[in-house]
Q: What sequence folds into this?
């Protein structure tokens, strides 16, 4: 009698905000999960860890770490805060390395790469961005993310890998990092009091935000979908005003509104003034749709932020 084995998944960047949720979601589906990252972080129950810098490591070492994996997920990448050099390194050579490593394996795993909705570039207000929308990224982050996505898609077209790209919108939810707008706002709200009111600058932008657990569920479904060489949008499918998002987080914090003050100041937006993903393809190809309402996502973000206390907060929180 043949002995069945659990499916095995390797999550590159598995100790990061999105990567940790992906590891947990795959483990719940009875994958044996290995989180790969440059540096150790807080352990994830039921998930193994390997410290490996996939940008600098030899291809053979990366391939050996993947071993008999059924799935490789690239959830690594630099945030908006990184400079151009760091973004280039983590968004382009890293993806090149992973594709090359996967291509050497006799039993090739499925490769899923997390791209970004910002790869499409700025769009007019009211636009629902579908996957056939032209890509015209306008920032170093978006340009380097697009190059990484194209590496995966071109390699799939050439038959080197069985893979695809999930183009994800702005991500929120429990564990949102301090480097993100909402994660930083939560940290500042925890420091707000009668003697330390919160001053912030907001923009009137409307953006598509998706809960991190919905992103993780999309990865699980894409892992088993017979879809290769495609980019698929993952988002809420609606554009929500930044003021509404801030209001939800302030409500979750129970900080009295009188302690929150808005001021006029220049805001250098790092994305467009409007993002709204057309997510019909995700429903059709993956059977996926978002489940977590934004209110629940932000309330859970607030609850989780009690365990994340940065050493210092920025003097001003900007809605960018």
A:
């Amino acid at each position: 009698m043949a002995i069945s084995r659990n499916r095995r998944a390797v999550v590159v960047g598995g100790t990061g905000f999105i990567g940790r949720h992906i590891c947990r979601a795959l483990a719940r589906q009875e994958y044996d999960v290995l989180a790969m990252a440059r540096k150790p972080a807080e352990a994830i129950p039921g998930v193994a860890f390997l410290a490996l810098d996939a940008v600098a490591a030899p291809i053979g070492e990366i391939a050996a770490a993947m071993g008999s994996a059924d799935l490789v997920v690239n959830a690594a990448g630099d945030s908006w805060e990184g400079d151009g050099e760091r973004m280039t390194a983590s968004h382009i050579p890293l993806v090149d390395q992973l594709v090359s490593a996967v291509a050497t394996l006799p039993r090739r795993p499925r490769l899923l790469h997390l791209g970004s909705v910002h790869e499409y570039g700025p769009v007019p207000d009211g636009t629902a961005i579908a996957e056939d929308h032209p890509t015209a990224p306008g920032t170093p982050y978006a340009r380097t993310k697009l190059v990484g996505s194209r590496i995966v898609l071109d390699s799939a077209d050439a038959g080197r890998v069985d893979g695809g790209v999930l183009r994800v919108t702005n991500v929120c939810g429990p564990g949102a990092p301090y480097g993100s707008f909402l994660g930083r706002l939560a940290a500042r709200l925890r420091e707000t009091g009668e003697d330390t009111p919160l001053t912030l600058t907001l923009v009137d932008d409307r953006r598509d935000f998706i809960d991190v657990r919905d992103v993780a569920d999309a990865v699980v479904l894409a892992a088993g979908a017979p879809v290769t060489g495609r980019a698929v949008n993952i988002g809420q499918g609606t554009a929500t005003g930044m003021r509404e998002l801030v209001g939800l987080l302030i409500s979750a914090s129970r900080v009295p509104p009188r302690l929150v003050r808005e001021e006029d100041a220049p805001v250098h937006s790092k994305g467009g003034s409007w993002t709204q993903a057309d997510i019909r393809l995700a429903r059709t190809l993956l059977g996926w749709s978002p489940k977590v309402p934004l209110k629940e996502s932000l309330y859970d973000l607030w609850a989780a932020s009690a365990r994340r206390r940065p050493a210092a907060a920025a003097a001003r929180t900007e809605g960018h």
Notes: The chain has two domains: 8-171+210-234, 172-207+238-277+292-318. The first strand starts at residue 8 and ends at 12. The chain has a mean pLDDT of 91.
